[in-house]
Give the backbone structure.
Amino acid sequence: MPSKKIHKILVANRGEIAVRIIGTLRKLSIASVAVYADNDADSLHCRLADEARPLGGGTLKDTYLNIQKIIDSALDAGADAIHPGYGFLSENAEFAEACRANNLIFIGPDAESMRLMGDKIRARQFAIDNDIPVVWGLVGSVEEIEAQAAALPYPVLIKASAGGGGKGMHIVEDASQLHLSLEQASREAEKYFGNGQIFIEQYIRNPRHIEVQVLADHHGNVIHLFERECSVQRRYQKVIEESPSPTLTEERRQAICETAVAICKSMNYRNAGTVEFILDENQNFYFLEMNTRIQVEHPVTEQRTGIDIVEEQIRIARGKVMGYTQDSIVANGHAIECRIYAEDPENNFMPAPAELTLYHEPKMRGVRIDSSIDRPTVISDSYDPMISKLICHGKTRESAIDISRNALKNYIVQTRKTNIPYLQSIIDNEDFLNNKIDTSYCEKHQNELVESMHKMRDEVKKEDVVALFLFYDFNKLYLENNNINNVWEEIGYWRFNMNIIVEADGVPYSVNVEKIRRKSLNCTINGQSYEVLLSQNGGGVNKVIINGTTESVFVSETSDNSYCVHLRGLDFICRRNDELNYTKDYSNIDSKNNDMTYCSPMPGKVIKVNVKEGDEVKEGDVLCVVEAMKMENNIKAMASAKVAKVFVNEGDKVDVKNILIELSI
Ligand code: ADP
């Protein structure tokens, strides 16, 4: 096969995988074309690509799943090839054919391999025909399977032939459940995959999920890049993936990798793929399926082998000989990937699309983050709520776990809910640490993991959170922009006793603020004194010293006037409840230039003017109200007098030197 040139590639995807592919294109000096739905116009993948082509609005069928629009965009842009990423059209044989019909290189296998492996029943039969081990199974119509009800080796698993993403699978424990489960599974298969064909397999108890990354070129070379273990799953969806498998013996590792290569050779597979197996308690492995595309968890393999799989995919698609032989592959150390989602682990992992107010990645040795975002944004409910993947690589499993723990703790993703605390709980869980895992790990440990999430939160003193939040709130202009002359520059420091209520995680705390100045706060919360001092700020990092202990704190404001405070790896929601009804009497402070003119005590905004020229006022009457530092400050008359002049209107911004009102006797 003669090698073809590729100058420009359209990436038919979005999110982190589009970003990741564009990264390799940049490295290879290949021009990149992004495509985007209307609600993605501002996305990172569009900003990073050399050009971005709109797909319009509507449903996924109108945008990322619209073959014609994507082909037209590629032709229009003058692209030579299309990389489909994962999901969307990546395993759609029709799409691969449409690319080829339009002289576009599809970066993936041929349509026939995709059809064969996209149909679980065909793939299973293919494996059997090629002496690849599969679990016992039965293929047939619902009636045919039911006719065997009494003879089935329970428990069995019903699967959809066109299935994927763990959807539509049902465990059947005994014959009495079979009828209903078959009907339901077949209905779901029709609904999700447009194909009601189902089959059953023996359900392996307590299995592990092991998969092998393969690469195959057009010159007959097929290699594996070792295995990944993905046994930490939730509803058959992977949560944490690692490589090497901490479970396989060396002999089984070699056998499973060679089996994966054998499958690829038997089917003349080309490009990158993943062969998935389940492993029983005796280290017997059985072929499950093959994913004919790049996989979400491919970075785990990249970190260990140093091979850029996307680069190899492109090389293979160009018809070149692969850059590696089996003997040249060296896998180093241990890598672990955690999938970061906007979801609520305590509420059945419900997706939690919401505004994301602060994003800050940990920068540490051994850490790679493949992210869909790089700044505050809104997580859309139109797509999968995965935000990013955190991949940590260390010398051993223990060190990869240590790096993961540290990285998760320092990964700031402030939004309504993320699964970061859940991942932290897994990383610290005894059974995970000891590799006592099977595919039901998450389900079995759910209560324990939730308890450990609660415990982590309980261990953080909320008073610390409150003090740090207040420190930020009083200093935020200064903290967010060093160049701004903050209010304290203008008025020096404040010494007073102000009582305010701060809610942290919904619980009110009564705070007596004693002294505020630039870079420090003194207050009492529940009878204990707190002193917060700024130690270092800039570059998104705020180091503060609270009662002698240095802490990193990240705070962002949400659109409903709450604040998200990140402390010791966790996020807390804080809110000041005093803001609208607290009034401070400034009559004794600087609000009075002399007996008759009244100035604003601080830069702020006039929110109420109670008097007009000619009005008679008594001592103590509130002349006007200035809102500053989120407090309402009553400006009171010092003596009975007549209003000579009102200098301000409601809504006016005022500075310390502005005269608000003048009285005369
Ligand atoms: P999908 O294509 O929907 O992802 P797979 O066949 O790849 O479905 O299986 C997904 C997961 O379901 C596996 O990782 C494993 O946890 C579980 N699984 C699949 N088949 C079996 C089986 N026969 N016994 C036990 N668990 C299974």
